[in-house]
Amino acid sequence: MYRNFLKHILDFTVAFIILLLVLIPLLVIALLILTESKGPLFFRQERVGKDLKFFKVYKFRTMTNEKRTVGSTPIIGKAEGVTKVGYYLRRYKVDELPQLLNVLLGDMSLIGPRPSVPEQLKQMSDAEKRRYSVRPGLTGLAQINGNIHLSWKERFVYDLNYVDNVTFWNDLKIIFRTVFIVILGEHKFLNKPMMDEK
pTM of this prediction? Predict the structure, then answer.
């Protein structure tokens, strides 16, 4: 019942309340982004959601519009092109808050596998694509167990573990650990895996 009904209701309700509570800080952040560098307020990108349906994900823009070398490695810390404001937005995951709009639209959940880009589908096995049987989330089991420090294959293992164990208590534990990671930093939790079982 939680997985198929209550989870979606909780997602919408909590996302709506959070947006109301942080509305003024978000407006301040928007002003800082627009005054620091030229470019749009939001970064939008096509991602793969539940049942392999594509949607546009929203993030606060944290990089300049200048041309840069695009690689396959994650953008960490004060990497090339990251703005001063963008560095702090990334560090404290504030750049992800606009995805609460995706939650309200029903494209995402608060907790679930992170939404992947379409190109990754070619690299996934049919078993790994089971991650798309649930809505993608703002945070998930892979994100509290290493996130960008994990290989994609390792992330998929955590994603499938989550898919097989969608419960209210697991979601609650993931939320609490996410809060500590945001405050203390991901490196504090790299060697402390949390695999949730039924």
Answer: 0.86
